[in-house]
Every structure is written in C-alpha cells, then in structure tokens.
Design a protein that fits this description.
Elements lengths: L12 H6 L19 E5 L6 H17 L4 E5 L6 H8 L7 E5 L2 H8 L9 E8 L2 E6 L7 H10 L5 E4 L5 H13 L4 E4 L3 H10 L4 E5 H9 L3 E6 L5 E3 L2 E3 L9 H6 L6 E6 L4 H16 L2 H9 L2 E5 L1 H22 L7 H4 L8
Parallel strand pairs: 1-2, 1-3, 6-7, 6-8
Antiparallel strand pairs: 3-12, 4-12, 4-13, 5-8, 5-9, 10-11
Length: 347
C-alpha cells in the first residue's frame, strides 16, 4: 500500500452542488442549513497551530454558509479527548464540528479513545512539517554537521520535543530508534514550550513543528536544518531541505509528508444535503486569496483536502501513527489487528 500524501486540489463541493436537484416540496439542496449557530469543539488551545489553522478557515466557511455564528470553544482537555468525546455525543445534524488535528490518529492505539478516524468526515486545510532545529549560535549550519555532531556524542546531546506519543515526539523517536541517532529526548507540553526550551539552551537542539519556530527562524535565532516533507520545502521565506536528501528509509519514503494537521470534522451520519453545503463552503474557503498568506505566514503545508480526499488521508495517516506507536514506541494498548488498521510495513 502506497500512502504518499501530496497536495491535491480535491475541492469537490461545487461539483456536488452542480448535479443537485430540488428536493421534495421544492426545497433546495441544503436549504435552511445552517439556521442556528455552529459550535466548533477545538481539540487544542488558542494560539497553537490547530487554532491558527482552523480559525480563519472557520471564519471563511461561516461567510460562505451565511451562518448566524460559528463559535470556537476550547475543549482541549485531556489532550483533545474532551473535544472528541463532546462531538461524538452530539446529534449528527451538522451543528457541531471538531476543530480537528492529528490526535485522532494515535489515540486509538494508545487506548485513549474507543473510536477512530472512521467515526468522522473530515475537511483538512493544512499542517506543519516537523523540523530539526538548532540555535544559530551553535555553529551547526547544515544537516550533515548536525548528524556528525550527534554521532560523535552518543547519548550526550538532548532534543526538545512535544509530549510522548505526539507526532513530533514520534519523529524524534523514529530518528533515534530507526535511523540510529543516539540522543536524549526531553518532552515538553507543546510546540511552543519545546521551541522556547531550544532557544533558551535547555536542550542542544529541537525536533518540532516549523510553525511554532518560524518567528525565531525569521528573527535569526534558530536555523531549521531539515524537515519531514517528501521534497525540499519553501515556506515562510526560507527553504528547508527534506530529510530524504540524507535518509533512505522505506516507511518514511512512502508516507511523507509527516505533519500535524488541522481542519474540521463532523461525526459520521450528517444528512447528505448538509454535507454538500459544507463541501461547498470548504471549497470556497480554500479558494479565498487570503489563504495563501495564512499558509505562508504560519509555515503551513497546504493540503486543502476536501471530504473524500481527507477521509482517505486520515486513514493513511492513522496507519502510520499506529505503526509508530506499536512498533517503534512499544506503547500501544490496542494492536493494529485489534483496531482493524492496516500494517504499512507489510503493504
């Protein structure tokens, strides 16, 4: 199974509406939705990549839907489980969205939720790749220098990253366990704290999303040496080399880019006419000229994945995360066989 994820303009809402006809009694497709406020249960707190990526998309979709209101509410408790559980407990009428991110991919294997991506429909805007970053005063200018530095000090150097089991922490673990770098992993509460720890010299280097480090890169305090994209990535005014320039790993090759991700999701079961309206609103939001500045300013990788593409993509990403949690981390409380998740190493 090849699950390489590339940017695809699958914005199917307009096409779905083009073939729509009037429903019984002359009621137009989706007419009447939304008649009241939509609640977005945010799985991460304000200020982070999930919030910064989802908030402008929700605003654009509100305008496209002519919704009375689209209200984002912080339900980031328990790492996002609060928000997921809230959405799962609401009616499938289209009035409750999840401000979705990548926790849905690893939490089933970790036993933190008893459902997975198959319980949702997704519309995913973007994400941010993980980067290896050093302070500019470290004297390390290239990935090759960094690799030589780490290999010359086995077990001595430390890396700041996000909580254990999160995507960016998993990248650090992958580099250590699969690629062979020997360093100490120091987990912080999120991307921002791990970046600040790197800047402050609490660790020797960092492994976290490019989004929380981009202001420090632009200010000349940090230098990103490589990132988890399939090709070199130009973002936020800088070109970051791909790890594939140096690492030839079959799992990595067929599953890049490794990014967090953000967008919206609904519990499965919403009426077709409501889904069609959301398809159209998401397509309109993605086509808005303001989105390009949002991607550039935040170093977001532009997925722009409408419902069909996003649903497939989230299944593929879950297969990768389940592999990392079970095989690399050894932290799975539920196996992929138990969860019915495909094994990417044998596909």
């Amino acid at each position: 199974m090849t699950i390489t994820i590339r940017r695809r303009e699958v914005l199917q809402g307009s096409a779905a509406l083009a073939g729509a006809s009037l429903l019984p009694f002359g009621r137009a497709l989706g007419a009447g939705y939304p008649e009241r406020a939509i609640t977005v249960a945010m799985l991460a707190p304000a200020g982070g990549a999930t919030d910064r990526g989802t908030r402008p998309v929700a605003a654009l979709m509100k305008e496209a839907l002519a919704a009375p209101a689209v209200a984002l509410q912080d339900m980031s408790g328990a790492g996002g489980v609060q928000g997921l559980d809230y959405v799962m407990g609401q009616p499938t009428d289209g009035y409750t969205w999840a401000g979705m991110n990548d926790v849905i991919e690893s939490f089933p294997s970790l036993g933190r939720i008893d459902y997975d991506w198959r319980a949702f429909d997704f519309w995913m805007s973007g994400g941010t790749a993980c980067g290896i970053v050093v302070r500019t005063d470290s004297g390390i200018e290239t990935y090759e220098q960094w690799a030589d530095w780490v290999m010359s000090k086995p077990g001595e150097l430390s890396v700041a990253t996000t909580p254990s089991g999160s995507l960016w922490s998993n990248v650090a673990v992958y580099l250590k366990e699969k690629v062979g770098f020997d360093f100490k992993i120091v987990n912080y509460k999120g991307g921002g704290p791990s970046v600040r720890a790197t800047v402050a010299g609490e660790t020797d280097f960092g492994c976290m999303g490019v989004t929380p480090m981009v202001n420090f890169i632009n200010a000349g305090e940090l230098k990103c040496l490589a990132c988890t994209t399939a090709e070199d990535w130009e973002t936020a005014g800088t070109m970051i080399p791909s790890l594939t320039n140096w690492i030839d790993d079959p799992i990595m090759t067929k599953t890049l880019p490794w990014t967090n991700i953000h967008g919206i999701a609904l519990k499965k079961g919403a009426p077709d006419d409501v889904l069609a309206r959301i398809d159209e609103a998401f397509a309109t939001a993605m086509a808005d000229p303001s989105m390009q500045a949002i991607y550039n300013d935040n170093a977001f990788f532009p997925f722009q994945a409408g419902r069909e593409t996003a649903n497939d993509m989230m299944g593929n990403r879950t297969a990768l995360q389940a592999y990392v949690v079970e095989v690399i981390l050894g932290m799975a409380t539920k196996t992929r066989d138990e969860l019915g998740i495909e094994k990417i190493e044998s596909s």
